[in-house]
Amino acid sequence: MATVVSAAATKFRLVFFAPVPAVEACKAAIFAAGAGRYPGGNYTECCWTVVGKGQFRPGDTANPHIGSVGKLEHTEEARVEVICFGEDIARKAVVALKTAHPYEEPSYGVSKLEDF
User: 6 falls in which pLDDT band (50, 70, 90)?
Assistant: First the structure.
């Protein structure tokens, strides 16, 4: 069942990073949670994606999906930005992202947007 969104709802931007092979699964999960859907339903699954190079060094107690403990890892990742109408949608999208993302600690941020 589609989530109904209101144009009056507070807008949020969810930005996350994921390894390229996992991006489509992550996007499908957040879209199913209502992210990327504009009021009225005329536009759904809206996002912006760019591919770049990420890096990280897993610590001693990490269980990395990619790379090895203690070794600096460079990997191709995508940055995805999506709008969420309403705090409830933003929160549901983050839960969905964490479930779908292959990393122990997904890198993401949520920003409240102002309407001018």
Answer: low
How far are the Cα atoms of 1, 56, 57, 59, 102 from residue 68, in angstroms, in the given order? 41, 10, 8, 9, 15
- State the pLDDT confidence band at 108, using cuts at 50, 70 and 90: very high
85 close to 6: Cβ distance less than 8 angstroms: yes
Q: What kind and span of H or E run contains 81?
A: strand 73-85
Alpha helices in the chain (DSSP H): 23-32, 87-100
How does pLDDT run across 52-77, given as a tens digit for each residue?
999 999 999 999 888 899 999 999 99
d(CA 10, CA 104): 30
Looking at the whole model, is its pTM more than 0.85? yes
Q: Which domains does the chain have, with CATH numbers?
A: 11-111 (3.30.70.120)
